[in-house]
Amino acid sequence: MAGLAVNVDHVATLREARKSSYPDPVAAAMLAEMAGAGGIVVHLREDRRHIQDRDLRILRNIVQTKLILEMACTNEMVGIALDVQPDLVTLVPETQEEVTTEGGLELMSRDNTIAEIVGTLQDSGIPVSIFIDPSPEQIKVAHQINVTMVEIHTGIFCDAEGAAKRERAFSDIVDAAKFARKLNLGVNAGHGLCYNTIKTFKGLHEIDEFSIGHSIVSRAVMVGMEKAVKEMLALIKDL
Question: pTM score > 0.85 for this model?
Answer without folding.
Answer: yes
